Amino acid sequence: MRNHTSPRLTRRHFLAASTAVSMATLASDLFCAPTASKTPSPDLEKLGAVALAEAKKLKATYADIRIVRLRGQNIGLRLSPDRASGKTLSVPNVSENSSFGFGIRVIVNGAWGFASSPLVTKEEIARVAGEAVVIAKANATIQPKPIQLAPVKAYRDRWETPHERDPFAVPIEEKLELLRKAAEEIKKNPKVFGSTAALNFRSEDKYFASTENSSIQQLILQIYGNLDASAVDRAAGVSRNRNYVPTQASAGWEYVPEMNLVENAQRIREEVVEHLTAPAVKPGRKDLILMPNHLMLTVHESVAHPTELDRSLGYEANYAGTSYITPATIGKRIASDHCTFIGDRTSPRALGTAAYDDDGVKCSDFTIIDKGIFRNFQTTREQAHLVGDKESHGCSQADSWATVPFQRMPNVYLKAGPSETTLESLIAGIDDGVLIDGRGSYSIDQQRYNFQFGGDAFWEIKGGKKGGMISQVAYQGRTPDFWQACDGTAGPAYWRQYGTTGDAKGEPTQINSISHGCSPTRFRQINVLVTD
Amino acid sequence: MFTREEAQKIARKVVGYSTFPECQVSVTASEQAYTRFANNGITTASLALRQNVSITVTREGKTGSYAADDLDDASLKDAVKKAEDLANLAPPNSERLPALGPQTYPRTFDLDDRTAKARAPEMIPHVKTIIDIAVKQKLVAAGLIERTHRVTGIANKTGLFGFHEAADSQLTTTVRMSDGSSSGWAGQPSTRIAEIDSAKLGAVAAEKCAKWKNPRKLDPGNYTVVLEPTAAADIVRLIEGGFSARNTDEGRTFLSKRGGGTLLGEKIFPEFVTLRSDPFDPRQPSSPWSGDLLPAKAVTWVDKGVVANLAYDRYWATKTGKEPTGGGGGRGGGGGAGGGGSWQMEGSEASLDSLIAGVERGLLITHFWYIRGVNQQTLQQTGLTRDGVFLIENGKITTPVMNFRFLESPVRLLKNTTKIGQAIRVRGLEGGMMIAPAIVATDFPLPSISDAI
User: Which residues have a Cβ under 8 Å from the Cβ of B428 and sit 6 or more positions away?
Assistant: First the structure.
């Protein structure tokens, strides 16, 4: 093992006071406003070339660099009563953030090395490439088998989330006004204690270059919204909430009016009050209708995670866990024939949608489960050969310039059922059941067998009809049994896509955003619990 | 990484750029090095350097915030202007308090230089030790060794300034049978990387793995449990959020009384339950200031079973005529108890073996996984046991048993606690840290079985 040079940025690096151009200006210049050009910025390509040349000089057999700028804008408003007067107090939150830097990944002596820095200059890129090589050489001392990458085509391309209006360019006043209207609408019922309304915008400018001759610039835009209503019954010692979380989307501002925030504020205002006095569920085996804004998380936890190949092969054993699905499961039934799941990083408006993954693989769709039969794992370039595949399914991703790309789930969706299956027809087939809407508590074991999910709101179903609201519902199940208990999913007219923005995996933990689409779906005789 | 003087220089520069009467700034630089391993080999390793400036400006009750990575002069000026532009557009904040004046912050601990600088040459031998233990027993090891080094400077226009430098490290490992039929875990966080004992951790994880093979299926139900310190902390630490004075006054926590009032001063737990947050404990130091920039202090939340304090941030303290609690750990008293990262439950002299010896029939639990809140008010949680559950019969461990799901609140768990052991610093799988003892508790609800290994 060679001696290490000082790994740390010098004070000059950190303070960066002597750079001729500010990093903030440099970031804006490099990722300038989208143009009609289909090729990456020449300045980004020049910086990328420095990393690749330096890595090759230091005997790397593979190298890539990602130069990334992340931006976020968070606008929120909370309305709650003043302690003394009861008058409604308004607490706004207006904040923005940005992050800019690069990460370099190399393979030397068959092992990975990675290093990153927030100082995007040619000199620093060359230095950090050397750091990555040092790390790879150290790792190679305990490397049972050399890394093997599946072949990939070379791409020179520029892509951005389809959008009409950049959400960051929309005046903040316009956003605040929309949130004020929604939050005040919720508070119109005096039985509502507090309300919150929020809009969050995220953008990721990303440049990728590799020694496989790829040079790719992408811009990903994401929008999230949220409304929440709370109600308190002090005499009974009970407090309850009801929220509205519109589909989280990769889109421009033109999507925001489709969220219908004010209309939904009126709905949750009434539902939170009903929730406060809703009777507790009677526990036992019941049929369930799971709405898309709830089922998306069940799909995420019990279908998308267990079909990650790194998990199945033990690479996540110390934290996220392994999987009940192994390579021997390929070709076997793990769900009913109503269940076809597709991995797809090309779904319009989905959070995980991009043109290329962080291995430089073009994003595509692939079947994970076909009518209940397990077909394909999610893979990256280094994993494909482990299950005999010749190509990666394009599932490599890092959450920042400072983190290592690894296998992350694509958007995973449940195909809609036949057109003639409706929400009403699914409900009509239930004698004793519960309809569950929205996200609640969710927990699943490290091999994705035993789960417990709650929801945000629940309605009783009796004799084929939807009744009043009930409360304190959770259901527990064993994943393969649960999906085999699925006996119908509504048709394409009911199919909706919802996202999750906090998917944690890896050590140190990385956070991913993806979407899962589905229609309202029925499950038979599931174990329903009453919670606190 | 910057020094105290450099942090002060940057912070003053930012404050000076602002034309607003109030400007608060936080500058941080951090360095993280880690080596990750799985299937008896290194999978990834990284050195990540980050820096950040976070600026909040206020004029006439209107506040804007901007955070960025860039610390050069032009970028800092740009960031201040962006924060001011945002504030100009924001509506007034009804709960806004004037900026805090200069404070004297306590020193919370001495930085360990070796931990702050550790890289692959310090980490790889630990990885090799664990992999060698696993290979020798035909087992498969996975894990992570990491260290972080972080400096933070805070300042505002009144002359307030604070500086904090911290380093921490941890090693965790999961050792599994090659056919996936058993699993064992061990972990150790330490502010001194030299104290990490990889040989012991590897041996403990391998022993758990060997002993847990072929677990027996027991019926779901309520069991007496012996929770190892990590398992105890996994659940007990989640009580923190319930101590918010504001939420309690508003009738929204387990400490709210029906019809109004709180349980402050009432005995709700057994006498041997004492919960504190202590940012000065050298085993688990945390930030010298709270979320609202008050000096951190040690606070007793439960004293010998009695609710001793509720957490007041500056706003709620002002509204109610109380003193703000000023807990450490970078969190205010508004949402949680304000001791984030420095919570501890007092222990006893009793060893884990002696706790096990006192149980007629019960379960020994290594730790939990995927713990999520089910009810915000009662703090009911659910999650699963992981990496070693064993039946105790007549004071002895007799049989490995399959994993369970639990459904319980830290409140009921502490009410049902009958004995406690020695307290040590632990870090849960999902990152929560606490100094906690092993505990013995009755009637712990385990409503279903998990097939997971």
Answer: B230, B233, B234, B237, B367, B368, B371
Cα separation, A129 vs B129, in Å, equals 29
Tens of pLDDT, residues B112-137? 999 999 998 899 999 999 999 999 99
Tell me: ipTM over 0.85. Answer: yes
**pLDDT tens readout for residues B128-170:** 999 999 999 999 999 999 999 999 999 999 999 999 999 999 9
Q: Which of A29, A64, A25 is nearest to A44 (CA)?
A: A29
Is the Cβ of B47 closer than 8 Å to some Cβ of chain A? yes
CA-angle at A246, arms to A244 and A249, nearest 5°? 155
- C-beta atoms surrounding B199 within 10 Å: 12
Tokens for B314? Answer: 């500056």
Residue given tokens 């996220």 in the structure block:
A320
Q: What is the token pair recorded at A76?
A: 């929120």
Residue that wins the pLDDT comparison between A62 and B288: A62
Q: Cα-flanking dihedrals φ and ψ of residue A205, to 5°?
A: -90, 130
Beta bridge partners of A80: A89
Which residues 97-156 of chain B have a CB within 8 Å of chain A? 119-121, 124, 127-128, 131, 140, 142-144, 146
Bridge partners of A215? Answer: A156, A209
Q: What six digits make up the tokens of A200?
A: 């969050």
Q: What are the chain B neighbours of A11 within 8 Å (beta carbons)?
A: 1-3, 6
By the 8 A CB rule, do B326 and B297 touch?
Answer: yes
Flag whether residue A148 sits within 8 Å of chain B, measured between CB atoms.
no
**A102 closest CA partner among A206, A14, A215, A19:** A206
**Looking at residue A33, what is its pLDDT?**
61
Q: Is B370 on the interface with A (CB under 8 A)?
A: yes
CA dist., res. B377 & res. B258, Å (int): 12
Asked if A511 reaches chain B (Cβ–Cβ under 8 Å), the answer is no
List the single residue in B124, B257, B403 with the smallest CB-CB distance to A138.
B124
Task: Tell me which DSSP letter residue B390 carries.
Answer: E
Q: Is B452 at the interface with chain A, CB within 8 A?
A: yes
B86:A94 CB<8 A:
yes
Cα torsion B280, B286, B289, B291: sign? negative
Q: Determine contact, residues A131/A116, Cβ cutoff 8 Å.
A: no
User: Rounded to a whole number, what is the distance in Å from the CA of A507 to chain B's nearest CA?
Assistant: 7
Please answer whether residues B4 and B153 qualify as being in contact, where contact means their C-beta atoms are separated by less than 8 angstroms: yes
pLDDT the model gives residue A13: 52
Task: Give the DSSP per-residue string, B79-94.
Answer: HHHHHHHHHHHSPP-T
* Pick from B163, B165, B160: nearest CA to B24: B160
pLDDT tens across A171-199, in order?
Answer: 999 999 999 999 999 999 999 999 999 99
Give the separation between CA B26 and CA B292, rounded to whole angstroms: 12
| Burial per residue of A132-164, b for 16 or more beta-carbon CB atoms within 10 angstroms, e otherwise | bbbbbbbbbebbeeebebbebeebebbbbbebe
Model confidence over B396-434: pLDDT tens digits?
999 999 999 999 999 999 999 999 999 999 999 988 899
* Chain A nearest C-alpha distance from B431 (Å): 9
Tell if the CB–CB gap between B70 and A317 is shorter than 8 Å. no
B349–chain A nearest CA distance, Å: 31
Say whether residue A17 is in contact with chain B using an 8 A CB cutoff: yes
pLDDT above 90 covers what percent of chain A? 88
Task: Determine the residue of chain A that is closest to B259 in CA distance.
Answer: A235
Residue A532 in contact with partner chain B when CB distance is under 8 A: yes
SS3 of A367-416: EEEECCEECCCECCCCCHHHHCCCCCCCCEECCCCCCCCEECCCCEEECC
Q: How far apart are CA A65 and CA A200, in angstroms?
A: 28
Quick one: average pLDDT of B92-101? 91
